[in-house]
Amino acid sequence: MTLAPPAPSGVWRPYIDEPLLTPAVVDGPDALTAPDLDRLRRYLAALVSARRGPVHTAVAFNAVYFGYDLDGQGYGGSPLDPDAFPVVTLGECIPTIPVGAMVRIATGSQPLYAEVIYKEGRHSATGPLGDVPEWVSGAPAGAERSGAVPGPDDAPVRRELLVPDVHAFGDALSLTDAQLGRLRLQQRWIDRNGHVVVNARYPLPGTAGQDALTAYTDYLLHEARAQLLSPAVPVSLVDLVATNDDALLHGALLRMLRTIASVLNSCEQLRCWGSYALPRSALAATWQDDGPLGRGDMSRLATSLQLAGQAAGPRRRGMPATTTVHTAIGPWLTTVTGAAPLLSGVDYAAAVCRANLAVADVVRGESKDGLFANGTRVCLDDAFEGGGVWRSRRPGAEETTADPLAPSGLGWRAASQPPAPRPVRSAPATGPDPRSTAPTDQPSPAPVDAPLGATGPAQAELLRVSDSEVMWRLPLRLAHIMDGFLPLRPLIADELRGALHRDGTRVRLELDHEGGEIEESQQVQDTVPELSGEPGRLSGIDWPLTFFPGIELLLQWPRGGRVVRATTMLLETPVIVDGDEIRHRYSKEILTRESTPGSTRDTDSPAGLGERDLVMRAVRRCGLLTVDGHALLDRSALPLTVYGQPPATRQATALEAAVDELIAAARLYPVTGSRDLDGRPRYPARPDEPAIPLIGYAPVVIPAQRAAPAAADPGHHWHPASKPHQVHGFLRRLSSGATPSNAQRAAYRQHCRKLGKADGWDLPSGYTFVTEHTRAR
């Protein structure tokens, strides 16, 4: 048997390379190892660049879970069964279809396979120019102009526009351009733009208000269950969480979708409008384009929203007219001369997202919380209807919104509820601008910190999930030690919640501190499980005095049991970090963050610290953090970081002197970074960004002992050996002419039985099966 060679680097290739999803994805991006996070981020960035339309979080999940090939085949190279997809028909009333659903569009002849990549509300009361009645904006599904809403047992219906990607399954499963053109002209199965307008029926009023990720989770576990749990996917959800329990699968799947959303938002090459991601390069091209839907039209759109609230008619003396206008982005775009060819197919979805981002940038950059200089307040009122409904109100000073870019639903609330009494305006407060960082002569403020909490850098790393146990590595945090608790992985918390409900209320923690001191009473402890919050945790733990922030624990939980075992791991060579000997494996990032001046097992406060310690604490606690424990802080932001407000002049002067002293003592070092468009410091500096001075902390790490010292090597650090990771069994595409062995066929049938297919399945044609194994990173 000849296997296609794995890619040594670059973007993931489904059914050739190892699956992109690992069990750690269930616990969030912080639980992913740096290599796995990088692989996922690179693939998602390439996916968004390769697809013409915006990529919704659900669509991105489909790509990594079902295997979207970026070489042009899309899902066409996967063993998915498109004939099992649900059928949608233009103009009919159908059960609601979420974004991400793979469907068959009825055509009367050859089926049209597609992935729904975007949808929006298409209320019949919305005007052709984008004018939206006030009561429609933010209204629940099935609501009426009178203010009536569906009852709790009703099944509301909402008119929706679906944008299908009819090329998602590659050329082999797509219609030709000529065939699609005829379907558009006929307008019987798709409309003239290649879209499908349906009356979507929701089972209950509450389901119509669900967020998109919850709706897609429910859809996958019910309507698309066979597709989700198919053994033919790169790696099955059941494999990732090692359970068939529906409640546990639901929680794990929803967390996976949220992880994908977080990774999309963290990609520097992308920008997100809600759950939709677009390449930054496409947005830049829009602002450089002088054609339809280019910078001129985007500027006109933003200006029209600012001027929409201006009263056109006469008003009585002394009585300023209040005007409120609601504008839907999608219909407005259709009024642009020459834009029609740019609003067909998936291009419509991309244009809507770009337009919303253009408006959002203007609101964020040229107004104060949505209030413009001309007195008009502009805010997003409904993110779904018409591609996004923006509310323009003048005068807008009387109406406030916490965030002008968060859908407020003021239109529906104002139309369906009696007006609230006008608030009494108080005199404006006086004093220095809290956003200013300049020193003042006000009374000296006390130093402050932002709380660290129990999440952040160097999160838990999942090592193994099997039918019998879950194993993971966790660096202990200062909050864990101070408050005496151990955070649990969501999968473990979910299963323990069910087990403890049936029998018992305690979970035992067994500690093994190899090569370290630990009291007998600390070796075995009865803990109190607190499983109602996020994340769940075991409380009432007395951590040994020799445990410090950053020490790594190897944790094991036998599934179904009520015992968690925690073991520390010795370093091959002990090290001395800033004068303290460390004999056990640790997280350099957490040690830098949480072993700062003012942080002990009992307290975590800057109160009483001198200026040098305040500077060191601020740099280590708030600076940009690297994997080797370096921290870099914008020097100009130091006073505000230490005190939380502009300090007195003498305090600012003392801090500057302390910085100079620490640099002279080689405890800090100066370096040049840059500031990005969002105002965040960056290192290394980028040539296209303004340069800024940074101050950096580097831990002084030396080996405590070495059998054979090398030549002068002051930068020697302990480097952990390559860590093994579990690779679940997966399908791999064979090269032309190759066939799988009988052993691979048998292994795949066994794999299918493990996933709940009683008789097992035969290997799909053209594929072999790579069995579960362990591999070094």
Write the layout of secondary structure elements.
Blueprint: H1 34-50, E1 55-56, H2 57-67, E2 87-88, E3 93-95, E4 102-105, E5 112-121, E6 157-165, H3 177-186, E7 196-201, H4 205-208, H5 212-221, H6 225-228, H7 237-241, H8 246-266, E8 270-273, E9 276-279, H9 280-288, H10 295-307, E10 323-328, H11 329-333, H12 346-366, E11 377-382, E12 389-394, H13 410-416, E13 461-465, E14 469-475, H14 478-483, E15 485-487, H15 490-502, E16 507-512, H16 520-523, E17 524-530, E18 537-539, E19 552-558, E20 563-568, E21 570-577, E22 580-584, H17 588-594, H18 611-622, E23 624-625, E24 631-634, H19 638-643, H20 649-664, E25 669-675, E26 681-682, E27 691-697, E28 701-703, E29 724-727, E30 730-733, H21 742-754, E31 767-770, E32 773-776
Parallel strand pairs: 2-4, 3-7, 16-20
Antiparallel strand pairs: 1-9, 4-5, 5-6, 6-7, 8-9, 10-12, 11-12, 13-14, 14-19, 15-18, 16-17, 17-18, 19-20, 21-22, 21-28, 23-24, 24-27, 25-26, 25-27, 29-32, 30-31
